[in-house]
Each structure stands twice: as C-alpha cells, then as structure tokens.
C-alpha cells in the first residue's frame, strides 16, 4: 500500500440523529466515529444540537473523544425526542463547517437535512462523498400527522428526494444486501454496497449454562413500526405452564399504550418495561434472556438483533427486510410471517420448550453467525471507500457450527 493510502484522513460525518438519541443509526454513527478516531483519523461529526445548544464541542462517544458540530435545531413534537436542523440553513451550515475543517472525505448518514446540505456543498468543493442509507420512509411517517391515504404518495416522494442527494455521492452503502437491493429499486441508484453496521462481539457476555427460567427479550424503540403489540399478544397466547417473562427495553411514544395493553391482556404481572437503560444494564438484559424477539418489519439491519446474537441468544424474528439475513431459520432461531401472532407464539414456544442440547446449538450458531459482522471489518471497508479504493462487499454468510435438532 502506498504511503498516501496509509496517512490519517480528515473525515466529516453528518447525521440527522446522533447521541443522545437512542436508535440504530445514531449508535452506528457513534461507533463508526469512535472506531475511526482509535485508528488515528481526525474525525468530526455534524449533528442536531440538543443540550447545551448549538456550538462546537469535544464529546466522548463509544469511548472516544471527538469534535462535534452541534447545529441549531427544533424539536419535532409528534416524536418523543427527535430534533431536526433547519432545512433552509442546511447549506449555510455545511459550508461553514467544510471551510473550517477542510475534510478529505464526507460521510453522510442521512439525505434528509444535514446530509442534504453537506452533500451539495462538498460536491461544489470537489470533496469525496460517501453515503450510508439508514432511511425507511415508513419509519419516519409513523411520527407525522399525515393521513393514511396520503402515505404511499409520501413514500414515493421521499425516495425521489433521496435520489437527488445520492446523485452527488461517489459510494453508497447500506447494512445488508437485501437493503441494498431495496434501495436500488426505490431510487434507481446502482452499485450500492452492503456493509454491515458491525458490532464488537467481545463486548457481550453469552450464557451457555442450563437455563434457569424462560425470559423473552425485546430491545429497541418503543414505537409503532416495531410491532411490539404483536409480541405482547403472542406472549398472552403462550402456555401459562411455561412461566414466560417478557422484558421490553427501550423508550418511545407507545410505551404507555403498550403498558395498558399488557394489563388488558392479563400479562402485566410478567411483563417489565424498563425504559432506557445504561449500556451495562442492556448487556445484562441480553445475558439473562432465553430468547430475543424482533417483530419489526422495517429493519435495514437491526443492531439490537446483532447484539442479541453476540450474547448467544436464539432469535425469533419477522421474515421481513434484513432480519432473514441474520436469522437462519432452524439454525440460530426462527422466522415467522409478519403479523402472524399465532406463528410468533409458536416459534417462541419452540425455543422455550427446546431441549438443552437444541438450545445450546441455537446459541452457538448465533455466536458463529455474528463473527463476520465484526466492526473492524466494517471500519476497514469504509477506510477504503474514503480513499476512493475499489472494495468487495464483506461476506457475512457462513455455515452453522452446530446442528439445532433434537
């Protein structure tokens, strides 16, 4: 490798959602920035201001210190925490940061506001632009007041708008091959790279000992698109003899509604809503669980599912979007037809009644299948894209290590 391909880079990452927001895109952005800092690059992040307000701050995220340009923002009140930078100031804000920092490369995590302005201003200055798509219009529309009959039109307009920004970028990535194909079909862009968000599996603690109870875990935003109501209904259908306990980790606008639903279903005495928790508490929740459930149908990858796999959990997930890329039916868990509550209950029952031998095989396969998603591979792939090098999408499908049969 030539010396120019070894020198540290100046990297500007743009995100419309970033810490303290709690979601997959925000978490990926923080882990990406922190990993690049640890590799010796000069990394800055542009993100909406929260507290203490707009300005330039040195902040610590994912264990690394980095400079964050916090852009003046407004609260989006249909959502419980979302803030957005002002669209009519996006190019002005971008120009100021670009001229101050003079990065080698810009990496946008969204085309909506901050990424839109930054892509256009970086293109004018001849700066290389890489984009990662975490966007699903259906997720965004859950938090608008738009009538249902207008939503299909809004989805088409949202993808057309995304394509206008992506025409300025040199490389586009999204977390899985299925998500890449979806993006290509929705926007007519081509050559989208499938690059896993990646996690550091060694940060999680699997428990391969004999189970001491039946604990079902969900982790994620407590919002409509996650279909947590279906999970509650499925738990209510389980045989009471299983004594299954459900833990919902996360916060969101549906929290109180789902608490009421749990009470109406008669499962509130065995359902715990923790709200937001610390990283250590989250890891403990994964370790003590028996099975992880993800009923969402709008996952471009699902970092929570990856964390569960790194914790050695069998997964029961909807057969939708990117989840089948992580859940190999019958090997490290089971898929169910989206919206089919009896099927979800049946798949949960299959795990909760599995022999210890079969349960151990499911766990071992989850641990094996997560290994190709190591974040160091993700960081190396992005470094190559930042330098304008040709990359091959990392291979993430491997053979199971155990036979999950009784």
Keywords:
alpha/beta; Rossmann fold; Glycosyltransferase_grp1; eight-stranded mixed sheet; 406 residues; 19% strand; glycosyltransferase; 16 strands
At CATH level 2, the architecture of the largest domain is 3-Layer(aba) Sandwich
Task: Give, in order, the helices and strands.
Answer: EHEEEEEHEHEHHEHEEHEHEHEHEHEHHH
- Under CATH, the homologous superfamily of the largest domain reads Glycogen Phosphorylase B
Alpha-carbon distance between the two ends: 50 Å
> In percent, how helical is the residue content?
25-40%
* Tally of helical runs: 14
Structure description:
- By secondary structure, the chain is α/β, with parallel strands linked by helices.
- It folds into 2 domains: about 190 residues, Rossmann fold; about 170 residues, Rossmann fold (3-Layer(aba) Sandwich), CATH 3.40.50.
- It has 14 helices and 16 strands.
- Strand 15, helix 11 and strand 16 form a beta-alpha-beta unit.
- Helix 2 crosses helix 3 and helix 10 packs across helix 13.
- The chain is globular and about 65 Å long.
- It holds the Pfam family Glycos_transf_1.
- Keywords: Glycosyltransferase, Transferase.
- One of its GO terms (molecular function) is hexosyltransferase activity.
- This is D-inositol 3-phosphate glycosyltransferase.
């Amino acid at each position: 490798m030539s010396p120019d391909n070894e020198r540290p880079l100046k990297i500007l990452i743009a995100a419309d959602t970033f810490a303290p927001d709690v979601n997959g895109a925000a978490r990926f952005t923080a882990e990406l920035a922190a990993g690049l800092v640890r590799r010796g690059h000069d990394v800055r992040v542009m993100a909406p201001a929260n507290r203490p307000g707009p300005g330039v701050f040195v902040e610590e995220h994912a264990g690394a210190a980095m400079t964050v340009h916090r852009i003046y923002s407004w609260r989006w009140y249909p959502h419980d925490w979302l803030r957005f930078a002002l669209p009519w100031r996006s190019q002005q804000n971008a120009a100021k940061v670009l001229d101050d920092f003079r990065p080698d490369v810009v990496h946008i995590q969204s085309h909506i506001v901050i990424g839109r302005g930054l892509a256009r201003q970086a293109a004018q200055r001849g700066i290389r632009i890489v984009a990662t798509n975490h966007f699903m219009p259906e997720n965004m529309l859950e938090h608008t007041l738009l009538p249902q009959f207008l939503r299909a039109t809004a989805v088409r307009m949202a993808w057309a708008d995304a394509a206008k920004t992506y025409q300025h970028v040199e490389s586009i990535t999204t977390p899985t091959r299925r998500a890449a194909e979806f993006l290509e079909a929705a926007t007519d862009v081509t050559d989208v790279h499938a690059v896993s968000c990646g996690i550091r599996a060694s940060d999680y603690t699997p428990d391969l000992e004999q189970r001491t109870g039946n604990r079902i875990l969900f982790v994620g935003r407590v919002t409509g698109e996650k279909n947590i109501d279906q999970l509650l209904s499925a738990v209510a259908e389980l045989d009471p003899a299983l004594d299954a306990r459900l833990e919902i980790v996360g916060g969101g606008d549906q929290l109180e509604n789902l608490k009421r639903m749990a009470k109406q279903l008669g499962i509130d005495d065995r359902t715990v809503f923790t709200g937001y928790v610390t990283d250590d508490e989250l890891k403990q929740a994964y370790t003590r669980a028996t099975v992880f459930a993800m009923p969402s149908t709008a996952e471009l990858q699902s970092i929570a599912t990856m964390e569960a796999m790194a914790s050695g959990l069998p997964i029961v997930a909807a057969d939708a979007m990117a989840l089948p890329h992580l859940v190999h039916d019958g090997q490290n868990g089971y898929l169910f037809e989206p919206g089919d509550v009896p099927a979800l209950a049946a798949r949960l029952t299959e795990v909760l009644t599995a022999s210890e031998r079969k349960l151990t095989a499911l766990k071992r396969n989850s641990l094996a299948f997560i290994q190709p998603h190591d974040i160091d591979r993700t960081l190396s792939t992005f470094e190559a894209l930042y330098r304008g090098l040709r990359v091959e999408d990392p291979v993430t499908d491997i053979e199971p290590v155990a036979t999950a049969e009784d």
